[in-house]
């Protein structure tokens, strides 16, 4: 699943998956506990696909930040705890994204990003292009072997 249907709702913990739209808002499902709830248009909602992190040169989409974290952690959860001290969070984020803008990216932002990353890893919702390419290559190799076997079987007949 891409980040297109994953949202953050101000004042509510965790992340939510967009299920359907209604006249007065939409229905979401919590990724933390699986409970569904209606959200009105009055709530402040952010799609993760629309969030970016300030760097010294540009705004980097959150998905790219997650991909860098994924590469650093080899697909595992973040090595830093979101409840760690501010300095530890900033050191970790500097390792992941060396050119992030320290003046505009606060420790609270880093904490949220780490929490979201860990939740998405737990729910196996983070898929990146490299992984997709590897899966496709494996399928193509398997498919190619299957076709070769079928061709040699037909030739023998």
UniProtKB/TrEMBL annotation:
All residue ranges annotated as the DUF5606 domain in the record: 3-48
InterPro entries: BVU_3817-like_C_sf, BVU_3817_N_sf, DUF5606, DUF6852
Region Disordered, annotated ranges: 136-157
All residue ranges annotated as the DUF6852 domain in the record: 51-120
Protein name as it appears in the record: DUF5606 domain-containing protein
Lineage of origin: Bacteria, Pseudomonadati, Bacteroidota, Flavobacteriia, Flavobacteriales
